[in-house]
Design a protein that fits this description.
296 residues; Immunoglobulin-like; Elongation Factor Tu (Ef-tu), domain 3; 4 domains; 8-stranded antiparallel β-sheet; 5-stranded antiparallel β-sheet; 18 strands; 33% strand; elongated
Length: 296
């Protein structure tokens, strides 16, 4: 497959998927400001246990559902979305057990879902314990399998609390929203080859207008521009984190280094021995470099 990448200063590239141990985030194929968030594993919890927030300008927010709808950010930049999982607790007002099926009634709508786990406490035997909701006959009643003698319907106290995975807590995930489109398959090239194109923007790439990940991604797609971008960053924000990452993409020019630095580089990168000596011969042609033995 041949890839034709047409990049500009705002091109959004391969960073469209982000994942943590709990949450996934995926950018829309044609808009880097639109993101879909989801759990990275199945959960039996009900929607009411989940609350998603998308500050500072993602909408709609908040979303109290397990699977939120697509979020659109008003501006580009780094964004941290947060999933908050809560164990929902309801007060019990009535209990009954018939033919190994326990039925509990809550004082308000319980919101529990069939298949989710609940912890019953304070109701008394044989009701207390961790159970899987078998049915929800009404908004204020739910049932679970409980092998025990029948219990006549009676008033009760106690609580039922949702539980399960993910555990209750806060789960942040950071993405980078970008105000252009992502890579998108646009046509079949000649000879059956697939052609991929990216949005094109005009003007020189200025690293000062971009985050560190965005600059690195641009350099990966435009290795021939790394020296210009390195120089622009040095003269501008001069971010150490970015400069250190850009070093990996720069072509080693022996003219910029001392003899000892060059020999150290050769030892660390023996596969570049010939290229370094060729560049040195065309430049400073120092004996200490030219006579350095090839690493074993």
């Amino acid at each position: 497959m041949s890839i034709i990448a047409v990049h500009g200063p705002n091109t959004w590239g391969s960073k469209g998927t982000v994942a943590t141990s709990t949450v996934n985030a995926d950018a829309a194929a044609n808009n880097g400001l639109k993101w879909t968030f989801s759990l990275n594993s199945t959960s039996t919890r009900a929607d009411q246990d989940f609350s998603w927030a998308f500050p500072p300008n993602g909408t709609p927010t908040p979303q109290t559902v397990k699977a939120p709808t697509q979020v659109t950010y008003a501006t580009a930049g780094s964004k941290t979305a947060t999933l908050t999982v809560t164990d929902t607790q309801r007060t019990i007002s009535n209990k009954a057990l018939t033919s190994n099926v326990a039925t509990l009634t809550t004082t308000v709508a319980h919101g529990f879902a069939i298949g989710q786990q609940v912890i019953v406490a304070g109701v008394g035997a044989p009701f207390d314990g961790t159970w899987v909701v078998a049915s929800t006959p009404s908004g204020t009643t739910f049932t679970f399998a409980d092998t025990a003698a029948n219990v006549t319907s009676a008033a009760s106290g106690g609580t039922a609390t949702s539980t399960g995975t993910p555990a209750a807590g806060s789960y942040p995930i950071t993405i980078t929203a970008v105000a252009t489109t992502s890579p998108m398959m646009v046509e079949e090239g000649g000879g059956g080859e697939e052609t991929m194109a990216l949005d094109e923007s005009t003007g020189p790439f200025d690293p000062a207008d971009h985050t560190v990940p965005e600059v690195v991604e641009y350099v990966e797609a435009h290795p021939d521009e790394v020296e210009d971008i390195y120089a622009a960053e040095t003269a501008g924000k001069n971010r150490t984190t970015l400069l250190n990452q850009l070093e990996a993409y720069r072509v080693f020019d022996p003219a910029d280094y001392t003899v000892s630095e060059i020999t150290d580089y050769i030892e660390a990168n023996p596969e570049e021995y010939d290229a370094v000596l060729e560049a040195e011969a065309a430049g400073k042609n120092r004996a200490g470099v030219m006579n350095y033995p090839r690493p074993a």
